[in-house]
Specification:
Elements lengths: L8 H10 L3 E3 L11 E3 L1 H20 L4 E4 L8 H6 L1 H4 L1 E6 L6 E3 H7 L10 H11 L17 E4 L2 E3 L12 E3 L5 H5 L1 H7 L6 E10 L14 E11 L5 H17 L7 E5 L9 E9 L3 E12 L1 H10 L5 E2 L6 E2 L2 E8 H12 E6 L2 E6 L10 E5 L5 H14 L5 E3 L5 H11 L3 E5 L1 H6 L1 E6 L5 E5 L3 H5 L1
Parallel strand pairs: 3-9, 19-20, 19-21
Antiparallel strand pairs: 1-2, 4-5, 4-6, 7-8, 9-10, 10-16, 11-12, 12-13, 13-16, 14-15, 17-18, 21-22, 22-23
Helix pairs in contact: 2-11
Length: 458
């Protein structure tokens, strides 16, 4: 079996396109930077990841409730949150070919740290000191424009009928703001009491200067966020518990522990008092952020109370005292999560003397749970029986019909998309109502009675 760390991102990208997981956005027009479409198997894996994450917080927990907030929000939301003033990246352009670079990332490549709290003037000083060591990724020049802060919010003209764009609305720079806006609604309309959490899966958009690394950094993303509301100064123990819960979830869902590590933020973003990342060891890219876990104190609710004029204090049901809860956040981009899971599952090994590529995804996550094959597609009696079995299986799980090519080739196709079981209908099936079930990971085959098949597969 091949070492996962030796698998390249090029192989993963090739598999993802060839097997219908991920397509470049607007590909027939030449593609669009930072945009990707999830294909037939990709959308199934993505939905399974969402379901597994939602099950963890909403189905299995009593202290979380769910939410799905609107994408468009009052523009004042982004003023209150700090995104209009602080949500920016340092941009510079190559004077020869006009290629844009993100200055902090380019400095980081040569071992120089640019604090995200630095002013434009300080960034320009730092950039000037090291500019000769930085090369344009397109033309190799070191002749760049001065650094300027580039706000990442995406402006829209929604509701603007003048064409002047004097009062722009914005696509969300992060999905979680809808949770803060609905904090009072959730408290007023449900039986939750602090401490409690709100979970949401929602869209976010960022006008990234240099989207890169496949699904790792894109301009449109989906985020799975939780915000856990605690009493003031009762954050430390809950924060450590949440960190351990998120780490354990990845292990439970099949991620290898050696491919994960913790990293504490040295330079905190404007809203956080403490922040840690779970990093994943991505093929070719190395360790980088998978999920962020942030102690946001009372910043968000305080800001929205100030800007909206609405009282967001929580009334303690036992003491009748009022306070603004502190917030502990988990946030993960589902594109990065998707990339981590297929990276961890990708294996090249030998089975039956042949080399194969297989995605050893957790069965809960596999896009297709079972593939159904008639041994021969030119035998009507086999095809009819296989169709009958396929029809009742697909009522219970995602299944796929495949009668193209020999059985070996069909197995290889299903291995590459991570299908845990292949069910073959042969001549013995017609005689004794049993089928052959082949296991993806071991290649072992077992005869199973049709009446027991659903329970066996589940």
């Amino acid at each position: 079996m091949a070492d996962t760390n030796q698998i390249t991102m090029e192989k993963l990208i090739s598999l993802a396109k060839r097997r219908g997981f991920i397509y470049p956005g607007s590909e027939i027009y030449g593609g669009m930077a930072g945009m990707y479409d999830f294909g037939p198997y990709g959308v199934e894996l993505l939905n399974n990841l969402k379901r597994a994450w939602w099950k963890e917080y909403i189905q299995k927990r009593n202290d979380y409730v769910g939410l799905d907030s609107a994408i468009f929000k009052d523009p004042r939301v982004w003023e209150a949150s700090g995104h209009l003033s602080s949500f920016s990246d340092p941009l510079s352009e190559c004077k020869k070919c006009n290629t844009r670079i993100r200055v902090d990332k380019e400095l980081g490549k040569i071992g120089v740290t640019a604090d995200e709290k630095m002013s434009e003037a300080d960034l320009n000083t730092l950039f000037s000191e090291h500019k000769t060591k930085i090369k344009c990724p397109k033309c190799n020049s070191s002749d760049f424009t001065p650094v300027r802060a580039f706000n990442l919010l995406v402006k829209t003209n929604m509701g603007d009928f003048t064409g002047k764009n004097e009062q722009p609305t914005y696509l969300p720079g992060e999905a979680c703001q809808g949770i803060y806006l609905n904090f009072k609604n959730v408290v007023d309309t449900t039986r939750v009491k602090v401490p409690f959490g709100i979970a949401q899966i929602g869209k976010a958009f960022r006008n990234e200067i240099s989207p890169r690394n496949f699904l790792f950094r894109t301009r449109e993303m989906e985020q799975a966020d939780t915000q856990y509301f605690v009493r003031p100064n009762e954050n430390k123990e809950a924060y450590q518990k949440i960190k351990q819960e998120r780490w354990s979830w990845y292990l439970k869902m099949g991620i290898k522990e050696e491919n994960l590590r913790w990293k504490q933020h040295d330079n905190l973003v404007f809203y956080a008092s403490d922040a840690w990342d779970i990093e994943y060891n991505f093929p070719s890219y190395g360790f980088d952020e998978l999920e962020g876990i942030h102690d946001r104190t009372d910043y968000d609710l305080t800001q929205h109370m100030k800007y909206s004029g609405t009282d967001l204090n929580y009334t303690d049901p036992h003491t009748s005292g009022k306070y603004i809860p502190w917030i502990l956040e988990t946030s993960v981009g589902l594109g990065r999560m998707f990339l981590a899971f297929i990276s961890d599952a990708y294996v090249e090994d030998e089975l039956g003397g042949e080399t194969r590529t297989v995605l050893k995804l957790a069965k809960e996550l596999a896009p297709i749970k079972a593939a159904v094959f008639p041994l021969l597609k030119n035998k009507p009696e086999l095809v009819a029986k296989a169709r009958q079995i396929f029809d009742f299986l697909k009522e219970e799980m995602m299944c796929e019909w495949d009668d193209n090519g020999n059985i070996g080739k069909r197995y290889r196709r299903q291995d590459e998309i991570g299908t845990p079981y292949c069910v073959t209908i042969d001549f013995d099936t017609l005689e004794n109502d049993t089928v052959t079930v082949r296991d993806r990971d071991t290649g072992e085959q077992e005869r199973v009675a049709i009446k027991d098949l659903i329970n066996f597969l589940k």
